[in-house]
Design a protein that fits this description.
Layout (H helix, E strand, L loop, with lengths): L3 H10 L8 H4 L16 E5 L3 H13 L4 H13 L21 E6 L5 E7 L5 H11 L4 E3 H10 L10 H12 L20 E6 L5 E7 L20 E4 L3 E7 L1 H7 L1 H10 L4 H15 L8 E7 L4 E5 L5 E6 L2 E6 L1 E2 L8
Parallel strand pairs: 3-4, 10-13
Antiparallel strand pairs: 1-5, 1-11, 2-3, 2-6, 5-6, 7-8, 8-9, 9-10, 11-12
Helix pairs in contact: 3-4, 4-5, 8-10, 9-10
This protein binds N-hydroxy-L-asparagine (SD4).
The site of N-hydroxy-L-asparagine has 15 residues, from strand 8.
């Protein structure tokens, strides 16, 4: 469970307290989602930055926008926030001091696009969208992705802010530099990808996922977020899933695809997230060192959320309310200490 004081501090820092329903502010609030079916539309996304992203997605839907526009525009909010050190502008750099970005998007028609190891572009999600809409490919990487972006009118920008640079320097001073992400006491200080799933009134589903990846990662490292089936998966007949946390664990288990396949075989989104986390726990020997959070959304309007460690929260917009909720977790106290 996220520490209440830290949660309130971080929510206050984000200016969200006023927007949060009192339910969220109660320590110990947890939902399991079993059997709850919401009216459409629904938007669900990872971490507290998801509140603003959801609000933007809903705005797009309310104005008659398409479901793919809604997910793209939603995640563009944290991408352009310099105070968010896990996505887009202001992201923590890799070990060489360069910010490198991963993103993917998938629509109800089964089409998908992604970019990885992309530098100097604030909105990798929009480049991923162009890959999806305007090329026969799914994934472009590195200098090829950058060239494609520039050819399509995107402009280069320095993404490394002074604050991110200072935070990165402090990180490098630490003796233990094993990647650590999403632990309850470090929430909002370290790395939080945004994965966002949405379903509109017509029951069409789309998803988007974007990140600067692990802070101080090896040069060239690509995580789960741009890989269709790992960080994001959508099947318009079944539902969608997205992942956050230590990407290597999600890549080894194709987490999002697994969640959707479990739903296809009859699991509810909540059961599917729990079973997929259990799979990671069973199959990945060093999983206790890491955090993974999974979100799922079904065609019927149910949601699921679950993580390995306590401390994973997510933003849910449903039936007119946009709220931050805590996910249940496999371990009830953190296991990396
Ligand atoms: C990655 N999954 O690059 C991302 C990082 C993340 O919350 O999700 N952090 O491995």
């Amino acid at each position: 469970m996220i520490n209440r004081r830290k949660f309130l501090e971080s929510a206050a820092a984000l200016g969200l307290i006023g927007a949060l329903p009192s339910k969220v502010l109660k320590a110990g609030n947890k939902i399991t989602n079993r059997g709850i079916k919401y009216k459409l539309p629904i938007v669900i996304s990872t971490w507290s930055h998801g509140l603003e992203a959801n609000a933007e997605s809903v705005r797009v839907l309310n104005e008659g926008g398409g479901i793919v526009d809604a997910v793209e525009k939603g995640v563009m909010i944290p991408e352009s926030d310099p105070n968010n050190h896990s996505v887009g502008l202001g992201g923590f750099p890799d070990i060489t001091g360069k910010v490198t970005l991963d993103a993917s998007i998938m629509g109800p028609d089964g089409n998908a696009g992604g970019v990885c190891f992309l530098e100097n572009i604030v909105h990798p999600i929009s480049v991923a969208r162009k890959v999806m809409d305007e090329t026969p490919h799914v994934l472009l990487s590195g200098s090829g992705a950058l060239k494609f972006a520039l050819d399509n009118g995107f402009e280069e920008e320095n993404l490394l802010t002074e604050k991110a640079l200072q935070g990165w320097k402090k990180m490098l001073e630490r003796e233990n530099r094993t990647p650590e992400i999403n632990w309850e006491e470090k929430h909002n200080e370290l790395h939080d990808t945004i994965g966002l799933l949405a379903i509109n009134e017509e029951s069409d589903i789309a998803g988007a996922c974007t990140t600067s990846g692990l802070a101080a990662k090896m040069r060239g490292r690509v995580g789960d977020s741009p890989i269709i089936g790992a960080g994001l998966y959508v099947d318009n007949e079944i539902g969608a899933a997205t992942a956050t946390g230590m990407g290597e664990l999600v890549l080894k288990t194709l987490g999002s695809f697994l969640v959707v396949e479990l739903m296809r075989n009859g699991a509810s989104p909540q059961q599917a997230c729990e079973q997929a986390v259990k799979r990671i726990v069973d199959k990945v020997a060093d999983h206790k060192k890491y955090q993974i959070g999974l979100l799922a959304l079904s065609k019927k309007g149910e949601i699921g959320a679950y993580s390995i460690q306590p401390g994973f929260n997510y933003a849910l917009y449903a039936e007119g309310k946009n709220q931050l909720l805590n996910a249940g977790s496999f371990y009830k106290t953190t296991t990396n200490k």
